[in-house]
C-alpha cells in the first residue's frame, strides 16, 4: 500500500515509529507536512498538491494533526476523503474531539461517566457556575488548551472566582469541572484501535502537581484495566467517531470518568511504558480496513 503520514515534523517519535512500522510491513510511506499542502477543490478531479506535485494513488492517510492546526489539518484530511482515500481518523471525528465542550456534550448524551462539568459565558453567572460543579476545589480548563496547558486547580471559592474572571476578561472560553480528589493526581491513558483497547498506562503527576501529563514531569507505568474502564474507553472513542484514540480516564468513587478523547495520541510514552508495538498495530488496522474496502462513498462533513 501507499500511505501518507500527515505530520509537521518527520523527526517526531510517533511519526518515525509509524513510518518505520509501515515500511517494515512492506508499504510505501511518505511523510507529508499538511501545512505545506494546497488543494484543488473541484468536482471533476479534486487533488492535494505538495511540493508542486499532486499526491496521487494513496491508499490511506494517517493524520497527526496538531491541536493548534486543527482547522487547516482537517481541511486537508477532508480533501483526501473526497478523493476516496481511507483515513485512520476521519476529519469530522478529529474536529469533533478537538472541541472540548462538544466532546463532553456528546459523551454525556451517550451516558458515559464524566466529572460534573459547567460552562457559562457571562461573569455575572460565576457563582451559579461554581455551585453547579459542587464548589471548590474545582478545575478550570481553557477549551483550546493541550498537554495540561491552560488547566488550573482552584482550591478555594475565591481563587476559582478570580481565575474565571481573569480568563473571561481575556475572552477565553473555559470549562469548569469538579476536582476528582481520590484520583490522587493520576490518570489512565487507554489507547483504542478499532473496537479494542490495545494498551493502557497509568500516568502519575509529579510531586505537588495535579496534572499527570508526561510533558509536565509525570511518570508512566503499565496498568491493568477493569472491564468497566475498558468498556468506557471503547464507548468514548466510538461516540466521537474515532477509529484510533487516546482516552484519558480518572478513577473516581463513582467509577471511571472521562477527561479527554485525543484523536492524535502520542506513541512514545505508552509504547515505552507497556512495551507494546502500537505503531505496528495501527498499520495492521489500516491494512484490514483498506483491504475490506472500508471507504465511505460519501463523507459526512
SSE inventory with pairings:
Layout: E1 2-6, H1 13-24, E2 28-32, E3 37-40, E4 47-50, E5 53-54, E6 60-63, H2 70-82, E7 86-87, H3 91-98, H4 100-109, E8 117-118, H5 126-132, E9 138-142, E10 151-154, H6 157-169, E11 174-178, E12 186-193, E13 196-204, E14 219-222, H7 227-240, E15 244-252, E16 255-262, H8 268-274, H9 278-291
Parallel strand pairs: 1-2, 1-6, 6-7
Antiparallel strand pairs: 3-4, 4-5, 8-11, 9-10, 9-11, 12-13, 12-15, 13-14, 15-16
GO molecular function: ATP binding; metal ion binding; ribosomal S6-glutamic acid ligase activity
Family: In the C-terminal section; belongs to the RimK family. Belongs to the RimK family.
Organism: Cyanobacterium aponinum 0216
Provide a descriptive summary of the structure in words.
The chain is α+β, with helices and mostly antiparallel strands. The chain has three domains: 2-87 and 285-291, Rossmann fold; 99-113 and 182-262, D-amino Acid Aminotransferase, Chain A, domain 1 (2-Layer Sandwich); 117-179, 2-Layer Sandwich (Dna Ligase, domain 1). It is built from nine helices and 16 strands. The protein has a five-stranded antiparallel sheet, with helices on both faces. A four-stranded parallel sheet has the order 2-1-6-7, sandwiched between helices. Strands 8-11-9-10 form a four-stranded antiparallel sheet, with helices on both faces. Helix 1 packs across helix 9 (278-291) and helix 2 packs antiparallel against helix 3 (91-98). Residues 297-301 have low confidence and may be disordered.
Amino acid at each position: 500500500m501507499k500511505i501518507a503520514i500527515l505530520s509537521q515534523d518527520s523527526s517526531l517519535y510517533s511519526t518515525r515509529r509509524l513510518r518505520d512500522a509501515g515500511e517494515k510491513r512492506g508499504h510505501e510511506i511518505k511523510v507529508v507536512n499538511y501545512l505545506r499542502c494546497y488543494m484543488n477543490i473541484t468536482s471533476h478531479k479534486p487533488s492535494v498538491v505538495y511540493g508542486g506535485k499532486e499526491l496521487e494513488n494513496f491508499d490511506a492517510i494517517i493524520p497527526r494533526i496538531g491541536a493548534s492546526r486543527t482547522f487547516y489539518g482537517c481541511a486537508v484530511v477532508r480533501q483526501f476523503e473526497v478523493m476516496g482515500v481511507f483515513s485512520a481518523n476521519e476529519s469530522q471525528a478529529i474536529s469533533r474531539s478537538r472541541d472540548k465542550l462538544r466532546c463532553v456534550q456528546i459523551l454525556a448524551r451517550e451516558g458515559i461517566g464524566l466529572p460534573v462539568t459547567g460552562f457559562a459565558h457571562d461573569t455575572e453567572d460565576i457563582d451559579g457556575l461554581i455551585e453547579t460543579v459542587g464548589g471548590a476545589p474545582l478545575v478550570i480548563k481553557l477549551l483550546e488548551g493541550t498537554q495540561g496547558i491552560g488547566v488550573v486547580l482552584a482550591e478555594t471559592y475565591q481563587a476559582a472566582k478570580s481565575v474565571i474572571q481573569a480568563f473571561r476578561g481575556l475572552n477565553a472560553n473555559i470549562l469548569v469541572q469538579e476536582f476528582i480528589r481520590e484520583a490522587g493526581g493520576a490518570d489512565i491513558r487507554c489507547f483504542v484501535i478499532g473496537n479494542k483497547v490495545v494498551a493502557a498506562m497509568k500516568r502519575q503527576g509529579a510531586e505537588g502537581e495535579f496534572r499527570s501529563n508526561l510533558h509536565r514531569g509525570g511518570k508512566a507505568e503499565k496498568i491493568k484495566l477493569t472491564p468497566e474502564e475498558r468498556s468506557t474507553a471503547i464507548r468514548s472513542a466510538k461516540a466521537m467517531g474515532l477509529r484510533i484514540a487516546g482516552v484519558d480516564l480518572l478513577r473516581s468513587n463513582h467509577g471511571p470518568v472521562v477527561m479527554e478523547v485525543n484523536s492524535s495520541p502520542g506513541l512514545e510514552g505508552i509504547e515505552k511504558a507497556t512495551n507494546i508495538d502500537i505503531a505496528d498495530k495501527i498499520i495492521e488496522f489500516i491494512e484490514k480496513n483498506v483491504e475490506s474496502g472500508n471507504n465511505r462513498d460519501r463523507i459526512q462533513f
